[in-house]
Amino acid sequence: MENVTDTIAAVATAMSSSGIGIIRISGSEAIEVADRIFRSRREDFCLADAKTHTIHYGMVYDGEEALDEVLAMVMRGPHSYTAEDTVEINCHGGVLVMKRILETVIRNGARPAEPGEFTKRAFLNGRMDLSQAEAVIDVINSRSEYAMRSSVSQLSGSLSRKVKKLREDILYQIAFIESALDDPEHISLDGYEEKLNGLLAPMVEELEKLLRSADNGKLLSEGIKTVILGKPNAGKSSLMNVLVGEERAIVTDIAGTTRDTLEEQIRLRGISLNIIDTAGIRETEDRVEQIGVSRARAAANEADLIIYVVDGSRPLDENDRMIIELIRDRKAIVLLNKSDLEMRVSEEELAELTGGKTVLSVSAREETGIDCLEQEIEKLFYEGNLDFNDEILITNVRHKTALEQALASLRMVQTGIADQMPEDFLTIDLMDAYRQLGTIIGEAVEDDLVNEIFSKFCMGK
Ligand SMILES: Nc1nc2c(c(=O)[nH]1)N(C=O)[C@@H](CNc1ccc(C(=O)N[C@@H](CCC(=O)O)C(=O)O)cc1)CN2
Ligand SMILES: Nc1nc2c(ncn2[C@@H]2O[C@H](COP(=O)(O)OP(=O)(O)OP(=O)(O)O)[C@@H](O)[C@H]2O)c(=O)[nH]1
Ligand SMILES: [K+]
């Protein structure tokens, strides 16, 4: 392992004007470095004498220049986030002030931290395992309440505990087989395969359950890709505005990767939706029909959810029939819009044409029926999954891959038993499963992977 005793520093808060800014220093010389620039009103006081988890009023100096009035917090290793001696300087949250203090800290013996380096140290020092460290970044990046709750649960070790228990059980069986093979006179393997089979079934089930949660987990962390389809003037933009308006404060506009799609991100009942407007479909009328159709089809193909908006005040036409074809085998909700006008299309008619999709009457203009839409979306994606207290959600592709491989190995053990393979053969696959699960919590993972994971963190984390 690399040397983790040098002292690092970074601004831990955002580099923009705010009430308070925090400069974080961690490492074996953290307290010494801080003492070089911090002066209390009491002449004889220094942070080196301070008890852990205490906070002290004073000034930060660059030489004889007073930089700012601050509060300095001391946390002594191993009782800190990084498990090292840590000082946090709470200064006024001006960009220049924070920069000057950080520079001064660095001139006095710390070096600039890399992104994620504090958390990396927490991991390398055994304060948290890799899945917990990964949860830290997920908490910061979570875009919906559900995603946040799931990340916090992982941070507190829910996934780690499950993985560790599985590994323990697997390791016990490996050890048993090996000691039996070593000492056949005293430990018998008669009937053991049957017993092992009985133990494997619930483990396989557990892994399958975790893997099933990954589908929801992905939607949860990345947002549900929602495409709104409908012929021109059906009310797509109006609907989008109503949905976006619900949570105006946290709306962000993300220019899509493709030139012609604009993605709006909204939060709805704790779920994050990335809503994509299909501008292309408009072209079916006045430009080359094929382009419009194929763009709509492409958008629809990538969607987790399609919202099909029908103008209920006009009879269905060719455009509608085309869209109905597109959504046939997809997760879709049909909105019968303009319910404030006289209706020329009925819910029943649409339900039949779409092969039994949920049809909801709404008015984007009067903002009625939107509640039902939200309820329906929640039902489609989170039915029976709303309680995350004991439900672990896999949101990380790395974890998913490891679980898949562990599952494959355990299935090989089951096949091995069915094929009456010798016991030492079974231990090879058991060991593989054990190792794969270990990578989730960071056992025996390559330094490169560790570095890559932490490099995606923010500065100062
Ligand atoms: N100012 C500040 N706020 C923060 C953090 C921080 O490092 N500094 N955190 C991180 O970025 C998070 C909190 N995480 C932390 C985790 C452990 C310890 C800590 O001192 N643990 C000791 C003592 C625990 C106790 O007294 O029970 C320990 O584990 O021994 C501190 C913060 C969020 N807020
Ligand atoms: N009466 C009524 N009019 C509506 C409703 N929703 C939308 N409209 C009107 O229908 C027209 C088209 O609405 P838009 O939201 O622009 O429709 P669109 O589907 O985005 O249209 P394009 O961008 O052309 O594809 C506008 O004049 C809206 O005011 C509704 O619920 N009731
Ligand atoms: K429009």
TrEMBL record:
First-level EC class: hydrolase
Cellular localisation: Cytoplasm
CDD domains the record matches: trmE (cd04164), TrmE_N (cd14858)
Location of the TrmE-type G domain: 223-382
The keyword Kinase belongs to this UniProt entry's keyword annotation: no
Residues given in the record as Mg(2+) binding sites: 237, 258
Domain of life: Bacteria
Sorted UniProt keywords: Cytoplasm, GTP-binding, Hydrolase, Magnesium, Metal-binding, Nucleotide-binding, Potassium, tRNA processing
GO cellular component terms attached to this protein's record: cytosol
Record-listed (6S)-5-formyl-5,6,7,8-tetrahydrofolate binding positions: 24, 88, 127, 461
Keyword Repeat: no
Residues involved in K(+) binding: 233, 252, 254, 257
Details of cofactor binding: Binds 1 potassium ion per subunit.
Record: residues binding GTP: 233-238, 252-258, 277-280, 363-365
Subunit structure: Homodimer. Heterotetramer of two MnmE and two MnmG subunits.
PANTHER family in the cross-refs: TRNA MODIFICATION GTPASE GTPBP3 (PTHR42714), TRNA MODIFICATION GTPASE GTPBP3, MITOCHONDRIAL (PTHR42714:SF2)
Function: Exhibits a very high intrinsic GTPase hydrolysis rate. Involved in the addition of a carboxymethylaminomethyl (cmnm) group at the wobble position (U34) of certain tRNAs, forming tRNA-cmnm(5)s(2)U34.
Protein name: tRNA modification GTPase MnmE
The gene coding this protein: mnmE
